[in-house]
Amino acid sequence: MTIAATGLFEVVPLTQHIGAEIRGLDLSKPLDDASIKGIYQAWLDHIVIIFRDQTLSQEDHMRVTEYFGQHGHIRRPPKYRPPGFDRVLPGIMFISNIRENGEPIGALPDGEMMFHHDMIHVDVPDKGTLLYSLEIPSSGGNTLFASGYAAFETMDPALRAQIDGRIAQHHYNYGSTQKGDGKGTEAFARARHPAIRTHEETGRKAVYVNRLMTVGLDGLSDEAAEPILNAVFDHAEKPEFVYSHEWRVGDLLLWDNRCSSHAREDFPAHERRLMLRTTVVGSVKPY
Questions:
Q1: Nearest by Cα to 48 from 241, 266, 237
Q2: DSSP letter at 71?
Q3: Which of 18, 46, 241, 264 is most open to solvent, judged by the fewest CB atoms within 10 Å of its CB?
């Protein structure tokens, strides 16, 4: 892996298959067109890009989101706000275990979380997600990112023949972090998408099913689909396809939901964790 210097910033790959750190940019200041084009290409090339040591206002965060497309809207604004937040811009979501009056101020508060693709349970899923860290626990809470490209390209041909060309069913009804934990909200959406998705910008194929939300395959009974899906999940989550991000305060991460899945490791429940999340809306209905 080689550091690529553009003259505007550096792109430092973090693993063979996924992840790169962008060095030399202060995102609190507007970027010129050449820099925006360069980081967009780095995103397509590396799937996950990381900007360390950023100090961003909500306006900065939204501006950076719009470098990659139209920002998404959240369905449920936060009911409570942590100290220091007199307002929250539309489009910003809290990911946090902080509680006010006994209720979490944000989504996905506690524990580990299975691999998943954001918003795969809607007809036009978000193409990207940005997460900015304000408070992190002393240990744990790493976010794991798995390359769907690498999983597809290295899949055993016999397994690939069973999954490629099929339509998968996705359902959001799995509680807060794990399938069947009973701690979250009830389902609000279902969707069907190709189990292997062709990225509309790169033309590459990627695994597009995940352990948390994928519940079946069209044309197969649950009993027939389950071993196929489990074999795909096990393959797609192999460590060699995964980048594990150890958070620091001031990190901004952007990942491509069209060709990667992600998961979260557990962390101490008594320690505060606060992230600000935005999304980039998709423009293509995969199916």
A1: 241
A2: B
A3: 264
Q: How many Cβ atoms sit within 10 Å of the Cβ of residue 107?
A: 17
pLDDT at 176: 46
Helix, strand, or coil (residue 5): strand
Q: What does CATH list as the number for 4-96+104-280?
A: 3.60.130.10
> What is the rounded CA–CA span in Å between residue 19 and residue 51?
11
Determine the Cα–Cα distance for residues 119 and 62; give it in Å rounded to an integer: 19
Q: What angle do CA 252, 235, 155 make, to 5 degrees?
A: 110
Burial of 20 (0-12, 13-18, 19+ CB in 10 A): buried
Q: What is the mean pLDDT of the chain?
A: 91
Interval 96-123 mean pLDDT: 86
**Which DSSP category does 230 fall into?**
H
Residue at token pair 């007199």: 86
Q: How confident is the model at residue 177 (pLDDT cuts 50, 70, 90)?
A: very low
Contact 242, 144 (CB under 8 A): yes
* Residue position matching structure tokens 């189990």: 195
Q: Is the pLDDT of residue 150 over 90?
A: yes
pTM of the model: 0.92
pLDDT per residue as tens digits for the range 268-282? 988 999 999 999 999
Residue 192, both tokens: 């069907």
Closest by Cα among 176, 164, 177, 145 to 254: 145
